[in-house]
Amino acid sequence: MLNAATLVPLVSHILHIVGAVILVGGIVYLRTVVAPGAAPGEGDPVDRLYSGRRTAWARWVGIATGLLLATGIINIVLVMKTYPNLSGSYRAMLGAKIMLALVVMFLAAILAGTTPAALELRKAAQRWLTVALISGLAVIILASTLRLFRTPTATGTTARPAPLKQPLLLNKISKHLPKQPALEGTSPPIL
């Protein structure tokens, strides 16, 4: 059943994905379709790259960036409240995801802009679109990985998924192996 406690995270998550789709999808299109076909030579590099549609792309970059920043903050707050004991490796991966996402947003915005820096970066548009594309794909991979590491327990802490049970054959074999003394605070090895 949907209530405020479930609706806010759901809507925030959906809008975050929509923002990512717009931004990364647009970068994929620019890098693979538009930039290779942009006519080299004289004239304004903006017109060569965007064929007069720079303003439309810049508007979508702004919308997507706004969605990603707003929903990203909401999502981080919700995750930290729901899972207060996240591991250091989770937090490190989250930090890497945020930094790479900021790189993607920056490159998309600067390449869609009209500042002198934007004009300079557009001279090597394919290179910077490639950096943005690879960073965007890395963000998607990190985001998917991070979702796997959040498992609530009854105490509100996070726990790793239970280890798989050993196949029957390994159980029979392990009965005949010498027992290893268990170290305090560790789990038994998985064969």
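Second entry:
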Amino acid sequence: MSASKHDHDREEGLEFQPKFDASGLVTCVATDAATGDVLMVAHMNDEALRKTIESGDAWYFSRSRNALWRKGETSGQTQRVVEMRMDCDQDAVWIRVEQIGAACHTGRRSCFYRKVDNGARLSFVDADRLFDPKAVYRE
């Protein structure tokens, strides 16, 4: 099949054909189903994507730990998937979730708790912690 025919099928067809990168991952954006707020950006490998679809719970692949993980398995801060969408060329996933507790490992509701100000400086916004990460992630 020609590349353009394959691309057309992936972009316009109804067949689920995730396009993983060279590391075997797709980017996943998780938003709050109720508010639309962006909660986090993570990655999924084939197994995480399949487990998410099958279970309805958000599963990811940690690049830093080189391991599969279910959101909340350590912290209890879980994500129940309400809807999953693929982007046009199927190399990125968007999940709308019911977030229980905090999405961020820092204990905050969202991983996006700092804004970029003039001069490329950061300032905190919506940065209250919902849990103490030191108490949850004991190493």
